[in-house]
Amino acid sequence: MKYSLPFSFLRSLVFLLGTKSLYSLLASVALQNRYVKYFEKLKIFYNCSLPPRKVLTIKRFIIYSIHGDGSDLKVQIIMQHNIVFSCSSCKNCMIFHDIEIDKAIINLVNCPELYDDVKVKFLSKALPAYYDDCPFFFWFHTSFIQYNRLYLPRHELDNLHKPKTWKIYPTEFAVEVQFDEISQSSTATSTQLSRVSLVGQKDAVGSP
């Protein structure tokens, strides 16, 4: 039995709880340790039910020990198999390089609302591409983000857990993600306003 990971991964784990298929699935997704930890939280705090949805936007990425200024990086944010946002030094973000601390700060402009499983890919023509045609990437589930922050050391970034990448990415290499949380009431209000606007446009088109 195969599943598209990590889309619906938590749901799959819930359904497979206590079966041999569960342990087979876990063994085949060593890179998804974060989701195994999510599942542990599901068992402890949510009685093996999916947690309440949390809607977030990404304010910025901070890349530590980058050994460069980050201007060569392109970021893609993927949700439900679609690229919902992309940015580079000349599009949708502002990149700052702190030489003293050796970190790059990527401030995003107009990041869309994100929820459930989200994938972030970093691309660069100046860096070797590995699995998924990129230097490194990672997944997270918005409902498990705490204090609007996610910090991922090198061994928790997909592709960079492999020793062959360590000559380029030092032990101190890490990615931090800072978020803003969108309240459910704000999201609902925004949706209602959009619907009212669409109805008004239709009435205007139909009026003499």
TrEMBL record:
This is C2 tensin-type domain-containing protein. SMART domains: PTEN_C2 (SM01326). Residues 53-182 form the C2 tensin-type domain. GO terms for cellular component: cytosol. PROSITE patterns: C2_TENSIN. The lineage of its organism: Eukaryota, Metazoa, Chordata, Craniata, Vertebrata. GO terms for molecular function: phosphatidylinositol-3,4,5-trisphosphate 3-phosphatase activity.
